[in-house]
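Re: export button greyed out
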Amino acid sequence: MEIGAHTVCAGKAEGEAVVYEGPFSFMGDMDPLTGRICVPRHPLEGQSLVNKVFVFTTGKGSSAGDCAAWAARENGTMPAAIICLESEPILSGAVIITGIPTVDRPHKNPFDLIRTGDCIRVDADAGIIEITQK
Amino acid sequence: MFLDKEEKAMAAGEYGQGIQKCMDYLIKFGEAFGAEKMVKISSAHTMPKEPVELLREMTEGAAGTGAFTTLHAAMSAFSARNWKAMGLPETFASTELDLYNQRRDIYTKLGFIQTYTCLPMLVGNIPNKGDYISWIGSGAQLLANSLFGARCNRDGTVINLAAAITGRAPLHGLFLDENRHAQVLVTFKGLDFGKLTHADLGAIGYYVGAKAQNRNVVMDGIPVRLDIDQIKYMMAPLAVSGAVSICHVVGLTPEAPSLEAALGNREPEEVITVGRKEMKESMDQYAWNGEDVDMAVFGCPHLSISEIKVMAELLREKKLKNNKRLWAGMPFQHYFLAEEMGLAKIIEDAGGVFASACMATIPDSPIPDGVKVIATNSFKAAHYITRFSKGRVKVVIGDMDKCVDAVTANHRKGGNS
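Workaround output, generated via the alternate export path:
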């Protein structure tokens, strides 16, 4: 199944989905050393995002989220690709400087269609999300 | 995206690898937001906390910044000059100092103006109405948009740095007329503005920010001419409890000659009325119920020279009580001014320390061990210190005189200390 979407950062990647129906910031939500969600009592606390296709609602939070993402890329702990409903400027800057294929404004609600563990291919060059295996 | 000849040359690497990288980031970012073209910025204000390697990459081969560029306050309260007097841990300070020096070499080479303040307009980065600027720091962005009528987006720190190096930024968001009108109207009831303190004004901003979230605000019905310090305390929390980028004040700020003009001749999406009850809602979150205070924190946003003068008067012939601390954030240019005026000596003799650093983003360390309760007149500081210290430190709100009283005792010459 394919879903159209808007390109934030071009590129292609595929991986296992991690789905979180809430907002996310690289600053404070993900440990750049391990690539794991580090917020106490977060529904995904401890979940690794490394090489995953991370699906969430919107970017949020500190303007230094891009620096945190850059540090994560240096450590090799970034997700493979990102799908979100709306990528605000700070998240957009973060994925652009780290070159993570990212799409937003998907034409169908990803939270109805994608579950954690699904195999997802993101073609951000063409603006297409492909669910390859449920 | 349309690029002029010079921008194309930047993108092609004719000005070196750093500028090429910066322009590449800006083009991709602009395209993600549907920007038609780049515009020249009149000034930039960047965060001196970027990874050193990233700073090197983005400035490689560049002879200077592309626009007049000042530096934001040093984060985590770290002051290269005063960290010892502040009692910061040596291990923390030595790491920070090393990075500070590495960055400083690059800043010096490229001609960054090393202001280390969250309010660059206090030290000479003064935009004109309608100027495109790329500034970091939610408080400075809000004041630049609102008070000066300059045009500033809330882009992240790296896009902001790329704009500073190239002197360009993509035309999007608050650069465009149609995105600058207010959606949220704030009115007031039962408040005597002439008597509101800085903490009271902060309580208004903190309440409104949470309601307005990321929408533009217009305040109507403020019967007095607020001064710059009052505006600062009222507006800064809008970008703390919320993510407000512009707050018009009818009759005061340049894009609000009338309520209709500020609203762009549309009806507001929401009307918020603020009175005593709403202010109390903010105050209650940082209520001071007689707790013994270990440290007073001022200068969030950074202190003006008028406030430093008031602080010195409050500290004249006073001394900090045993194990109590007083930190004051300000641009260090103001420190030299305060020194010249004899104010710095009064404050330092009493035991206060200055830092050209951020007083809000103070995590558990460097807050010295033993500090369990902090008093401040700033909602912004209260909000962030509570969160960055993960709740270890309790923060209470009070006006400057009350905060000073809580950490000092009288100390007349010849008397007992």
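Chain A has a mean pLDDT of 95. The button fix ships in the next patch.
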